[in-house]
Amino acid sequence: MKISKQFEEAVYVLLIIASQENGESLKSSDLSSLLEVSDSSLKKLLRKLVVAGFIDSYASKDGGFNLIKPIKEVSLGSVLQAIEGEPVVDYKISNLAEKIFDDQEHIQASKDIVMNAISSASDGLLKELNKVKLSSLVPKNQKYNWTVDWKNKR
Description:
By secondary structure, the protein is mainly α. It has a single domain (5-152), classed as Orthogonal Bundle (Arc Repressor Mutant, subunit A), CATH 1.10.10. Helices cover 50% and strands 5% of the residues. The protein has 6 helices and 2 strands, in the order αααββααα. Strands 1-2 form a two-stranded antiparallel ribbon. The longest helix has 27 residues, at 104-130. The radius of gyration is 20 Å and the shape is elongated.
């Protein structure tokens, strides 16, 4: 499994939107400029975050993106699932076991062992990531009052 860089981008996009001074909307161009990433790729990521219910988008002169779900309720696991999709680990077993084993029962058992291990590892990854809320990434000295004027930070 390879986790795309969009996962980390999504985490920090959510933190930026969450901390925007006065809860003002942020445009994708503001976000892409702050993170120094492509605006077109960031728009694809933002769409995934909208579909997942983390943020909302408003089309207008003053529009942009706003947080729907508080970061204390958003886990790294839920962000990973929103960005990478389901299942997090996507593996299709091949027919290589048939090439080395003759016994059908053993062939199926070996495939089941591999798939169960992969499924268990995937579940374990999500379980650990779900323990970490985005709010744990906020600077400790600003835990309850972290706001930034991102529009004028650039």
